[in-house]
Design a protein that fits this description.
single chain, ABC transporter involved in vitamin B12 uptake, BtuC
Amino acid sequence: MSAYFASLNILKLAKNLPGGVSQGIIWGIMALGIYITFRLLDVADLTVDGSFTTGGAVTVMLILAGWPAWAAILVAILAGMVAGLITGLLHTKLGIPAILAGILTQLSLYSINLRIMGMSANKAVSVDKYGLLLSSRNIPKAILIGAIFALALISVMYWYFGTEQGSAIRATGNNPHMSRALGININAMKVLGLSLSNGIVALAGGLMSQYQGFVDINMGRGAIVIGLAAVIIGEVIGNALLGKHLNFYGTLVFVVLGGVLYYLVIILVLWLKLNSNDLKLFTAVIVALFLAVPYLRSQRISSFAKFRKKGADRNA
């Protein structure tokens, strides 16, 4: 055991941490999209595993075609919104359950993404030949650009979901029956929310493809799990630190930080020389633990309240 710990290189861990932060910010941006469906709309949307790749595929192919990176990102966002629109229409117009509608769209996006990429499983884009917004070759710049995108997106989301339309989306997820009674078109709000969510996910896919220098047909596999992990980790830590003082803006910030913390845990797991094939298992364990924290906390508070009440009754 001592030989095992002696083989671990602290300097190597410290060297890899900035890269983990830069990738974590991008995953945190994706988690903001998942937050819209998971928390605001209360919909389980599996489209994101496909729309994340769609964002990367559209971005890379347009950059290779000579488009500037910022314009390619904008088109990628639109492509992601179209994917979310399709899921929303399958759910609201055809009566298909949301989770199945997302699976159908995700399945179809695999073939669509292949066609976008010229029937190739992966495409490379070099920072030496093209003006990419960020790259793993320049970690400090990647962290700065990622942070700018994240903060700008958080500010826009904070403003938008405070507007009448944004509040209607939140009301739809909170209580659809009451929202319908108030005259809100809940089907339109679901379609809009799914479109916005997948547009943000595609944005993250476009940034990730530039960061890693290529897009792969399987790069979005498991994205929903990573996004949920970021959302849950961010919420738990935010509530633990700020409690009732945590507002909507702060929640969005902690969602991005949840993505960073998740990826730092992955860096730590790899540094400990654990089998990389077990990463999915570690992810599931991490998500389960953070999911259990609010429930266990409520159980503890409830048990303490009952114990205090029994004590008061006994004294009386």
